[in-house]
């Protein structure tokens, strides 16, 4: 039932690549990968996480790249290039 609710309300598996400045060495950038089910297109869970980061962590955000994928997609297939038989 949870999966159906997520499909109906446009939830997607959301991945964010968060690039931030190291607190002790601001000239050096580091990446953090965040992944969660989130509602497209407003991304409320990601926004809450970034608000938390901004309020509580010392590493200043540089950039955030976001990608979202459907939970259920049509089957992907391709034709085989050959046939193998085992006797």
Structure description:
This protein has helices spanning 2-8, 44-56; strands at 11-21, 29-39, 61-70. Helix content is 23%, strand content 37%. The chain has one domain (2-70). It is elongated. The mean pLDDT is 85. The termini are far apart. It has a 3-stranded antiparallel sheet. A hairpin with a 7-residue loop joins strand 1 (11-21) and strand 2 (29-39). It has 87 residues and is an alpha+beta fold.
Keyword list:
87 residues, alpha+beta, 2 helices, 3 strands, elongated
- Work out the helix count: 2
Count of distinct structural domains: 1
Number of strands: 3
Strand order of the largest sheet: 2-1-3
Low-confidence stretches: none
Q: What sort of overall outline do the alpha carbons produce when their principal axes are compared?
A: elongated
Percent range for β-strand residues: 35-45%
Topology:
Layout: H1 2-8, E1 11-21, E2 29-39, H2 44-56, E3 61-70
Antiparallel strand pairs: 1-2, 1-3
Q: Can I get a quick summary?
A:
This protein is of the alpha+beta class.
């Amino acid at each position: 039932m949870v999966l159906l609710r997520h499909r109906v309300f446009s939830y997607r598996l959301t991945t964010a690549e968060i690039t931030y400045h190291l607190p002790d060495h601001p000239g050096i950038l580091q990446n953090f990968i965040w992944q969660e089910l989130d509602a497209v297109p407003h991304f409320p869970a990601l926004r809450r996480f970034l608000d938390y980061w901004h309020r509580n962590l010392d590493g200043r955000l540089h950039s955030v790249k976001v990608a979202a994928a459907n939970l259920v997609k049509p089957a992907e297939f391709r034709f085989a290039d050959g046939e193998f038989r085992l006797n």
